[in-house]
Structure formats: structure tokens, C-alpha cells
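Reminder to self: C-alpha cells first, then the designed residues, so the page reads top to bottom the way the pipeline ran.
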């Protein structure tokens, strides 16, 4: 199978391990238990953060070590976080329900005809202190959302967001300054 050829046994083992970890994480009903479990696996999550039924993918690349969540953060139900690269939430960050945080782009196998035009890339995503991201928003790889900024619901953030602004739309644009 093509996946065995490209990934190798070590990556496949990590994929299986973290698939089970995701299942176990999913049955932990209380946010403090989720935080403890993720910290045991290597994440750095403040005990005052609240993670609802957040889903993670690409754990098998770097594990949860690249997940850093500060004090007084909230991540809403059905939020999906790509752990291919680092995801950092500084203190007092809120990600509402169904937010999608992407840290990589890949069109498929190494011989996919679009690989030469869209090679696999990854970059971390950073949410600075006091950020709020509205429900259903998508944050693309390499984006930093500036301190005390608000991303309106349903927005697609394709580039860095300045501090202290409200952004909205597809792609997200500055609507107004808020400080």
C-alpha cells in the first residue's frame, strides 16, 4: 500500500497510538481531565484552561508537544486543531465552537500531480493574549492573531491580524479598530 511506502512503520505506529489517544481523550467528559491527559502526553496546557469537546488531528507528526494553551483560555465544542505544527494560545484566548485551526497544507501523496505547484508546507499558528475567534472561523497556517483582536464568526483568516482590531469575512479584513 502506498501509505506504508511513504510513511514507514514508525509513523504508522505513532498514527495508531495517537488515534487511540484521541479516542480516550474523547471519552473524558470533564475539561480538567482532558487537560491532565494532554499534559501527560506532552502538551503545555494551563490548568485554568477549559477545553470542551475539541478534536485534534495530525497528532502523529509531532505529538501534542506543540500545543501550548495559557491561563483562562476557552476552546469550544467541535473545534478542530491541526497539530502538524505548533498551536499557541496565550492567556485569555477564546476559540468558539467549530473553529478550524490549520497548521499545514498538503495536496496528497508525493507523486500527486499538484505537488510541484503546491508543495507540502507547515507553519505554526499563534493567538496572542486576549483574542476571541468567533464560531465557524478558519485560521490558516502561519497566522498570528494580534493581542486583543476579534475574529468574527465564519471568517477565514489567511494572513496575520493586527492587535486590537475586529476582522470579518472571507478572506478576513479589518472592519474596525477596537482599542
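Designed residues (179 positions):
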Amino acid at each position: 500500500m502506498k501509505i506504508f511506502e511513504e510513511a514507514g512503520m514508525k509513523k504508522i505506529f505513532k498514527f495508531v497510538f495517537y488515534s487511540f489517544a484521541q479516542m480516550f481523550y474523547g471519552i473524558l467528559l470533564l475539561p480538567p481531565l482532558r487537560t491532565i491527559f494532554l499534559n501527560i502526553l506532552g502538551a503545555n496546557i494551563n490548568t485554568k484552561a477549559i477545553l470542551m469537546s475539541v478534536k485534534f488531528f495530525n497528532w502523529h507528526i509531532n505529538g501534542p508537544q506543540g500545543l501550548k494553551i495559557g491561563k483562562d483560555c476557552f476552546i469550544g465544542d467541535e473545534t478542530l486543531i491541526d497539530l502538524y505544527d505548533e498551536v499557541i494560545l496565550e492567556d485569555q484566548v477564546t476559540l468558539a465552537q467549530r473553529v478550524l485551526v490549520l497548521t499545514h497544507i498538503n495536496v496528497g501523496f508525493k507523486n500527486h500531480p499538484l505537488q510541484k505547484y503546491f508543495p507540502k508546507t507547515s507553519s505554526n499558528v499563534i493567538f496572542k493574549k486576549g483574542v476571541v475567534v468567533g464560531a465557524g472561523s478558519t485560521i490558516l497556517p502561519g497566522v498570528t492573531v494580534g493581542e486583543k483582536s476579534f475574529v468574527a464568526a465564519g471568517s477565514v483568516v489567511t494572513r496575520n491580524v493586527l492587535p486590537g482590531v475586529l476582522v470579518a469575512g472571507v478572506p478576513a479584513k479589518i472592519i474596525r479598530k477596537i482599542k
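Residues 2-27 form the longest helix (26 residues).
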